[in-house]
Design goal:
Oligomer: homodimer
Structural class of chain A: alpha/beta
Mean pLDDT of chain A: 91
Helix content of chain A: 40-55%
Distance between the termini of chain A: 33 Å
Number of helices of chain A: 12
Order of helices and strands of chain A: HHEHEHEHHEHEHEHHHEH
Strand content of chain A: 5-15%
Largest sheet of chain A: 7 strands, parallel
Chain lengths: 321, 321
Amino acid sequence: MTGKCGLAAILFLCASWASVGQQAPTPGSKTLQEVLGYPASARLLIIHADDLAMSHSVNRATFQALEKGWITSASILVPCPWFPEVARWAKQHPEADLGIHLALTSEWTDFRWGPVSGSEHVSSLVDGLGYLPSDVDVVVRNAEMADVEHELRAQVNRARSAGITITHLDMHMAGMVASPELFGVYRKLQSAYHLPILLERSGTHSPPKGASVPANDVLIDRAITMEPGVAEKDWLDWYRKQLAPLPPGVYQLIVHLAYDDEEMRGATWDHPDWGAAWRQRDFDMVKSDEFRRFLQEQGFVLVTWKKLAEAQALRDRQTLH
Amino acid sequence: MTGKCGLAAILFLCASWASVGQQAPTPGSKTLQEVLGYPASARLLIIHADDLAMSHSVNRATFQALEKGWITSASILVPCPWFPEVARWAKQHPEADLGIHLALTSEWTDFRWGPVSGSEHVSSLVDGLGYLPSDVDVVVRNAEMADVEHELRAQVNRARSAGITITHLDMHMAGMVASPELFGVYRKLQSAYHLPILLERSGTHSPPKGASVPANDVLIDRAITMEPGVAEKDWLDWYRKQLAPLPPGVYQLIVHLAYDDEEMRGATWDHPDWGAAWRQRDFDMVKSDEFRRFLQEQGFVLVTWKKLAEAQALRDRQTLH
């Protein structure tokens, strides 16, 4: 399987570099797998839960999944009301791999949040009531980049002030790759905070058209995240079908965890996509013996963003010498 | 009973006017009960739920209590995440009696909120993480009145922009009577928005020492609100003992409604006073046949803030002529 997968991987990666205009890696440089001491044929996988801090229901499910090792990483919606619960938990779990889920949108109907820096300070980021808008399209149309940078720094800084060790930055609703300008701020934050950012070679979380990114800064070959339309009975199968054929490389499986409880149903009642039942299904899946056995049989190596950042630093050093 | 109660009422009211330096009412002017067409011996009662919008659990319980007539009024914590749910419900229930629960504090540990106008805009109102502080004492020490007025206007304005018809203003954790300066802002908002404000003749919600208030502006003779220390088995009895001996007058019973569910336990886990179980007990009480029968037997006349405002306007007009 190794040889075949290796060739497939090369074709897959070359195709996607071309598609997003990323700069090719230095010839002969090691893959992240190799830098971390795994064979070139290894498939590294981050299992990542989004939207931590959104609600108590999300927190309960995600904390449990992190503590049990069902997932390896999560990222935090800092403007949300349950952020202090995350900060307290993080202090009790300093080894937890936590990133910032940079947020410029607030997508529910009955339950919303505004910018951390304040609606009056970043007026191009808010709707008439002072909340972040529901759609990324509105952000692309209205947001001034000075406001975006100011607010996102405020989100990262609040998490740092609360004592959270941040391992990576990623983005709510793929907002930071929705335009070249937003992507520019994402890259700026990456270097300002010396943190890896979620970018995949192609797909929802890849750089916008025309953006030029050093290949070494794109750590994820593919982010696997379910889109609407999968029936409940096909849930586990869908994930298996995405993961099984992957060639050697570095992957992130993005899940959305919560309990299907009153709080979560209240927040998502008119929005079944990524809603309460969806999140309960993801939670049931990551903790199921069946899924965990599947990962083991497939030989996936579970990793964290912290590990990837170490590998990136090592590789950058090797490239320099 | 009427004569005795009438005398008791006069003594009770005179004593409390003296204690807070309120200006005596115009001699011969009618009581609010009389202005509203009730006999002078009537006891009017607002049953009022605080903290609407705080959580989905609070909203569910409070909406049900308002719809069923178990309570007659409620006030909204505008900075809280579930405010949009309240705004949507209010549109469907335009007759609902809703006030603004002016908030300068955010008292829970794992679940907090910041100012509506933004932590950077009203920096004297927030802690190191940008949230409103836990205690009123901190507000009294640090808050600049320009920030207080700016933020509280932003809270009222957000509710108005969301289409809510506001019937009154009151205050979270009795913050607006915690200092003469804060009280000054409360009075300013009262006249700016032409809304009645919660003030009682003596007690937690009475004007601060030395403040001079026209007696006609103090609409509530006494606000009854449970303080910590009542055992679960004595819950209903405590309320009965407070209400039964009241002389004729205008009263507000303040309750805190929610379900004792995961969300509410998560928010209040280290804070049993006014916590999840407390709120479930208040909810169970207001909806119980026993309590409702008690109110009826006692002859309390249930009223709203809207009704009181009408009575106040009528009385003011009569006083002028």
